[in-house]
Amino acid sequence: MPHHILLGDLTTFKADVIVNSAHPYPQEGSGVDKALYRAAGEGLLKARQAFGDLNTGDCVKTPAFDLNAQAVYHVITPHVHSKAASKQLKALYTTVFNEARNDDYQSIALPLLASGNHGFDRHDALVIAKEAIVEFLQENEMDIYLVIYDKIQVQREIPHFEEPVSELMMHQMALMEAPFEMTAKSFHQWLFEYIDAHHLEDPWVYKKANLTRQHFSKIRSNKSYQPTKYTVIALALALELNLDQTYDFLETAGFTLSASLLFDRIIEYHIKKEIYDVFEINEVLFLYDQRTLG
Questions:
Q1: Which of 14, 55, 104, 276 is deepest in the core (most CB within 10 A)?
Q2: Residue 84, exposed/middle/buried by CB under 10 A (0-12, 13-18, 19+)?
Q3: What is each CA distance from 191 to 109, 194, 252, 273, in whole angstroms?
Q4: Among all residues, which ones are annotated catalytic?
Q5: Mean pLDDT in the chain?
Q6: Which domains are assigned to the chain?
């Protein structure tokens, strides 16, 4: 199952598990901790207090009470200045995901851990979260939602896409010169011939594309399946197609990239730079208020 980066309020989010960045002492802290206790009702804090003091790396579980979840995992994040803080933070994410898997939960929503009072640079914290999420999803199936309350949490230096992209315009002019030229292959045929020719395994493809196993199974089983443009692009990135191949693949489903669309220019930029990481591209799409992939 895929990972998502979303702008939202964790206190109203629906998932099997909500992760709370908790205070190490059995009291109401600030930020996410305070907001979750207030939204869940007094029972959540009382349940947390039953565990007493906690140490960095701990993860304890309580009912979710009035939150839209089955459980809350209370975790203690490392401070940025503590020894091996980055490794500790990544290990904490892994602990949380493994616990959710062992508890047979299918979805988990969490904040960007340690990016508040514990001092991690917000983009560094996002990179650590990404590494842990991607590594876990390589071997496991789960919906993981990274819920961001403010885009400043993940703001970084990113490219600007305000000028028309010449290569996109050249492709469009070529299409205009032959407006009725049709591809000989269907989307289904093109995709699975490519997968077979390159000896790729289905899980490797759909996980890199940030698609669910169920979605990919539907594509494989239905030769006349009509994908969305977002699905085709996600698969093109997973297959690490160059720009010409991406255009050919999009054409099989009746799509193209347009120089007039910011989403398309962002995708074209990353393909030209040979950046195929869907999580990284989704971060840029998120910051530009574009629909993310997966």
A1: 276
A2: exposed
A3: 32, 5, 9, 23
A4: 33
A5: 90
A6: 3-153 (3.40.220.10), 166-287 (1.10.260)
